[in-house]
Amino acid sequence: MQLLQTFGLFVLTALAEIVGCYLPYLWLKKDGPLWLLIPAAFSLALFAWLLSLHPAAAGRVYAAYGGVYIAVALGWLWLVDGVRPTVTDVVGVAVALLGMAIIMLGDKPA
User: Fold this and answer.
1) Over the stretch 17-40, which tens digit does the pLDDT of each residue have?
2) What are the b/e assignments for 6-20, b being 16+ CB within 10 Å?
3) What is the pTM of this model?
């Protein structure tokens, strides 16, 4: 159960980070309104707070989070940007999630 909670927290964290970066992208590259930077800042603050909720060492959390971030980013690519992931994208996500699982489920220090 803790693994599912951790994974769910990673997904929420990834969404907060992606929104926090996507909104400035819209402003910079797509001529979006300046006010987009306000929710972007809140989203990035939420991202940092969510990462702090994990009890594991920060470096291990960041490393494992990276695998979930990759998966969520490619989901965003498909659902928001309308670009269907390729076979190599899917394989890359599988490898990244396997790496995340190895990090999170690996031998625990004594």
Assistant:
1) 999 999 999 999 999 999 999 999
2) bbebbbebbbbbbbb
3) 0.87
Residue 17 forms part of a structural domain? yes
Q: Is the pLDDT confidence value at 70 over 70?
A: yes
Amino acid at 72: V
* CA–CA dist 98, 92 (Å, integer): 10
Residue 109 has pLDDT above 70, yes or no: no
Length of the chain: 110
In a domain, 63, yes or no: yes
Inside any domain, residue 36: yes
Contacts of 14 (CB under 8 A, 6+ apart): 65, 68, 69, 71, 72, 73
pLDDT exceeds cutoff 60 at 110: no
CA nearest 18: which of 71, 88, 82, 60? 71
